[in-house]
Every structure is written in structure tokens, then in C-alpha cells.
Design a protein that fits this description.
The protein is mainly alpha-helical. It has a two-stranded antiparallel sheet. Helix 3 runs antiparallel to helix 4, helix 4 runs parallel beside helix 6 and helix 5 packs antiparallel against helix 6. The longest helix is centred in the C-terminal third of the chain and has 31 residues. About 40% of the residues are buried.
Length: about 230
């Protein structure tokens, strides 16, 4: 009796190749810029997490929760205080709760997804704008750098965490927007901190995975509506 061969889709092959190339680039640039291995360690973990996110896989939340503690240490080192508090106080516990919730309402390797109402969307957009402006004013008083981009990406990141926790499909759209802001932040940091190049490289890889997640979430949502 022959063993059934594991079939990989073209998307899977592309993601695996991209993940390998990104890992190589992170290593090469990390060595070139003499980046501390401990500071880029969470990036290697994130390669797998982003791949799982591209599939809307519930285990990405479990691994992401643990990895958030490593990111918190990195953000503190670079005086990205909004990112530090976001990783420690929000990303770590909420992703763990998300994994538990998704596991209780699992669907294949993912979870049962739902949509926000237009009223909820408008409320979230208004709340996001107010919070970004407030944080943008406060962070410079603490000596933080890149206050606007740091605030914009991390407040949206918190919104993404809660949307993901309650399995609202809009979390993928917010992740795409946040991916663009994150790339802009690391580009801005390159002049003063060129050793952050590995983080920029990962941000591009993560953005591509997020785009895949957007379409995968739409596919799952459509399929679930037909079968539930």
C-alpha cells in the first residue's frame, strides 16, 4: 500500500520559497550590520507565524503570543515605547486568548469567521483617529522616536488583535494597512539605525503573507456561509 503524497499548491510553494529567501536575507543583513542575534531572534519565529497567518491558521495566534515577549524586549531597546507596551500588555495575552477562542469555534485549521456592521466599522475608524492623535502627542514627552508612525501602527495593531480575537474578517484588511505603516516605520528608522534592515526585510515578507491571508479569509467566509 503506497503512502499518499503530500500535495502542495502553487501558493504554498511560493510562500515556502519566499520564507527561505527572507530568512537568508535576515541572516545576511543581520551579520553585515552586526545586529545582535537576540534582537533578530523573534524574526525567525515570525517567518513561520506569518506563513500560518497566510492560511488563517489558528496556531499562528499561539506562536505569536509567545513571540510577542521577545518583540517587547527589542522594541524597548529601540525606544519604541508604544510598540513595547503594545507587545507586552496587548499582543501577548490577547493572542493567547484568541487561540483559545478560535480553538473552541474551530473550522478546519481556522475558525468560524464573521463580519462587522457598518456602524461598528465607523465607530472603530473614529476611535482609531482619536487614539492616534492622543498617543502622537503623549509619546514625544516620554522621549520616544518616530512617534506618529509608532502610534499609528501600534494602535491599529491593537485593533487588529481584538478583531482577530472575535474572528471578524475585517482584521485582514486592517493588517494590510498596518503592514504598509510598519514598512514606512522601518524605512524611516534606517537612517539612524541601519541595523534594523532585517526588520524591514521581514516587514515586506509579512505584508505579502497578509495579502494572502486577506483572500484566504474571504474564501473561508464564503465557504462557511454556504455550509453553516
Amino acid at each position: 500500500m503506497q503512502k499518499e503524497k503530500l500535495k502542495l499548491s502553487k501558493k504554498d510553494v511560493f510562500i515556502y520559497i519566499l520564507m527561505a529567501l527572507t530568512g537568508i536575507l535576515i541572516t545576511v543583513t543581520g551579520i553585515y550590520y552586526k545586529q545582535s542575534f537576540l534582537r533578530i531572534l523573534p524574526l525567525y519565529n515570525s517567518l513561520i507565524i506569518a506563513m500560518l497567518q497566510s492560511r488563517v491558521n489558528r496556531y499562528s495566534n499561539l506562536l505569536g503570543s509567545i513571540n510577542s515577549l521577545l518583540y517587547a524586549a527589542v522594541y524597548f531597546y529601540y525606544k519604541l515605547y508604544a510598540s513595547f507596551f503594545s507587545a507586552l500588555l496587548f499582543s501577548f495575552p490577547i493572542q493567547m486568548i484568541t487561540f483559545i477562542r478560535w480553538n473552541k469555534h474551530k473550522w478546519e485549521s481556522s475558525t468560524v469567521l464573521k463580519k462587522l456592521s457598518w456602524k461598528m466599522r465607523a465607530t472603530l475608524i473614529a476611535g482609531y483617529g482619536i487614539m492616534v492623535i492622543a498617543m502622537w502627542r503623549v509619546l514625544p514627552l516620554l522621549g520616544a522616536e518616530y512617534a506618529f508612525l509608532d502610534s499609528a501602527t501600534n494602535i491599529l495593531g491593537v485593533f487588529v488583535l481584538f478583531l482577530t480575537m472575535f474572528a471578524y474578517i475585517e482584521y485582514t484588511t486592517c493588517m494590510i494597512i498596518n503592514g504598509v505603516i510598519g514598512i514606512a516605520l522601518y524605512v524611516a528608522m534606517l537612517e539612524k539605525s541601519p541595523e534594523t534592515m532585517p526588520f524591514l526585510i521581514f516587514s515586506v515578507y509579512s505584508f505579502i503573507c497578509i495579502c494572502f491571508a486577506y483572500f484566504e479569509a474571504k474564501r473561508l467566509y464564503k465557504k462557511q456561509n454556504k455550509e453553516i
